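Dear Dr. H.,

I hope your travels went smoothly. While you were away I took the liberty of generating a structure for the chain from your last submission, since the lab meeting agenda had it listed for discussion. I wanted you to have the full record in hand beforehand rather than looking at slides cold. The sequence, exactly as received, is reproduced here:
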Amino acid sequence: MPVLEISAVLFGFYGFASVGVGVMLLFVVRHDEHPVGLGMFHHRPDAAVFGGGPLPDDLQRPFAIFRAMHWHWLAGVLVSFGLLQVSVVVFGLLARQAWALWALTVADVAMLPYWLSVIGPYRRAGVRLRLLEIPPILWIPWFVVPPATILGWLALR
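The corresponding predicted structure, in token form, is as follows:
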């Protein structure tokens, strides 16, 4: 497989993963259910940041609704991002357009500080997050974007 196509597959994988997670969140997180936890990650780190006890009864339903609204909004952003990512891969990068490589790289790297800010409260609480406690959509870019960028650059130069 040529180098450019490997780069495209890597960038495309991240786009499809984003779409997949976004679609999944729409069906997994419900308005009418009590929240599974207060945070974003696994129960262990979430308990260290938000406390381990249940919410008071009068906050259960409003918080469940708020949490579902938040996750559904994030789901929409992930689907939109993923579709745009795949479109740039197909119509730009595979057409050997250098702007597409740099647009993909900059857009993907631009998300990293925001993901790090999500992890910040856990670090401040002294929680050492394990890889499988973090949603894959947060760590996939660390393993996909650098090789995709390098391979794309090598192919287009």
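Two observations you may find useful: The helical segments are 3-28, 43-50, 57-91, 98-124, 136-156. Residues 3-156 form one domain.

With kind regards,
E. W.
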